[in-house]
Amino acid sequence: EPEVTQTPSHQVTQMGQEVILRCVPISNHLYFYWYRQILGQKVEFLVSFYNNEISEKSEIFDDQFSVERPDGSNFTLKIRSTKLEDSAMYFCASKAQLQETQYFGPGTRLLVL
Amino acid sequence: AQKVTQAQTEISVVEKEDVTLDCVYETRDTTYYLFWYKQPPSGELVFLIRRNSFDEQNEISGRYSWNFQKSTSSFNFTITASQVVDSAVYFCALSRLNNAGNMLTFGGGTRLMVKP
Predict the structure, then answer these.
(1) Which of B36-40, B54-58, B88-92, B104-108 has the lowest mean pLDDT?
(2) How far is A31 from chain B, CA to nearest CA, in Å?
(3) Residue B32 in contact with residue B20, Cβ under 8 Å?
(4) Predicted local confidence at residue B76, as pLDDT
(5) Are B78 and B64 in contact, with CB atoms under 8 Å apart?
(6) CB nearest to A100's CB, from B44, B46, B102
(7) Are A80 and A105 in contact (CB under 8 A)?
(8) Rounded Cα gap, residues A35 and A55, in angstroms
(9) Residue among A43, A58, A95 whose CB faces B91 most closely
């Protein structure tokens, strides 16, 4: 069964460094998403992406964040200058056209020191 | 704005007991989707069930069943004959139907502990 994959599974970085989180969505899906979950808290929407552009973003998704689909398979989330409060689990999700269910990857746990 | 509330933060049951997880939502949309996701200790988010707002028929799928009541804005989820492997955090989520990509709004989650 097709799955969303994410790399790396864990990343530790220093405050102020740039990080890129990578996702490979399910191959025939056209809608892509990033969510984050601060430890012990709810899952929060960051951004949705369709047809090579951002379709919706939350207040969390400020100028420090960007997304890109650099090729036909990868979907990336870049944090330009990480802050301590960016420490969280980041989930990528994808959805097929005309379907309602988003399928999530296993997450990348980011720790900013 | 959309909001999902899961009032139960933690539930503890003994194996084989039935358990119901509550979910109440707020939305101004007339058409929307409701979901339950499971997050086991390993951390991933696993899709369990989906319900459309225009279909209030309640269903059973194996040990899972759900009770969607539009009149009370509730979407409760029941596990019958719980097992230790059901121990996880369960999230209720809501998405609206729009062209912008159907972002999910999650509740705070209910941690279910099933003891042997």
Answers:
(1) B54-58
(2) 7
(3) no
(4) 95
(5) yes
(6) B102
(7) no
(8) 14
(9) A43
Residue B15 φ/ψ, nearest 5 degrees: -45, 140
Classify strands A65-68 and B64-69 as parallel, antiparallel or unpaired.
unpaired
Report chain B's C-alpha Rg in angstroms.
14
Residues A78-92 have pLDDT tens digits of 999 999 999 999 999
Cis peptide before B116 (omega within 30 of 0): no
Lowest mean pLDDT among A24-28, B62-66, B68-72, B96-100: B96-100
Q: How far is B50 from chain A (nearest CA, A)?
A: 7
Q: Do B43 and A35 touch (CB under 8 A)?
A: no
Q: Which of B83, B82, B108, B81 is closest to B94 using CA atoms?
A: B108
Among the listed residues B51, B49, B83, B50, the one whose alpha carbon sits nearest the alpha carbon of residue B64: B49
Whether A45 and B101 lie within 8 Å, measured CB to CB: no
Longest dimension (CA), chain B: 46
Distance in angstroms (rounded) separating the CA atoms of residues B38 and B45? 6
8-state DSSP, A99: -
